[in-house]
Amino acid sequence: MYKKTKKLLCILFTLLILISFASCSNTTSSSGAANTAYPLSITDDLGNNVTIDAKPLKIISTSPAVTEILFALGLDDEIVGVSSSCDYPQAAKSKPHLFDFSGPNIESIIQADPDIILSDVAYGIPQDTKLLLENSGIKIVLMTYTSVDDVLDNITLIGKITDKNKEAGILVSQISKDIENVAAKAKKQEPKSVFINIGGYYTPGADTFINDLITTLGANNIAESLGSGWIMISTEKLIEADPNVYIDLSVVNSGDLPTDSIILNLSALKKNKYYSYSYSSNETSVLSRPGPRMSQALQLLYDDIYGK
Length: 308
Hints:
2 domains; Rossmann fold
């Protein structure tokens, strides 16, 4: 009886070891974060089905926001090309510019032999070019961002695609915590109305990343009710709305006043709640890019809307 019991215990102990070994196999990293299992099948934000056969070792980014995410996840060495708009962090400037405002440099892209191209809709790839690159064996994933959550989801997705799940999880957690802290401060403030000019009175309306940042702060974007996406507001509408705060991202030099004398009659101008940042400034870069510096954008908006 004792021998049978001992034999049974040995069998059970062996099974426990096997189960433990299986649970600690390559489906998780040493940190406990799940490793990506390839081939990985995903559906991007435009409904395209993409199968990624192995961990991408050569990545091209067409978007400044995506480029910032890649660097934040520690993928510096894997980036073999970016767009000419990718200027942050500093190291991004030294990467080959394979996309610019005139379009993609198809020959150089194919020579770079990337495993994948990551892009967003704003910096999208023409359909004919997309088909040509895909026929060359290059995977393409397109992302959208109309909210804070979209940006966090994109970071998670890029982390999954590149097997940087641990790093993506840490980054998302830190950004979320920072956003919660700023939002908590904003709840104690009296709500303000806000107008943001990106040039020619174009402004973010509903379903835009910047609008969601403003909403997160409990403030009111005067253009939210005028339509979705990036819209142009008339000076008449602007004067009628008379926002408490006016933020201009289109001036030549930070601190410049509006050139339109009519705008000088707005309450925001009279009460010194007008903030202007040149289109090439770090502030404009932070506010306009839905990436890992998102909590900095929220803090900047908070300071402009409610005061430091």
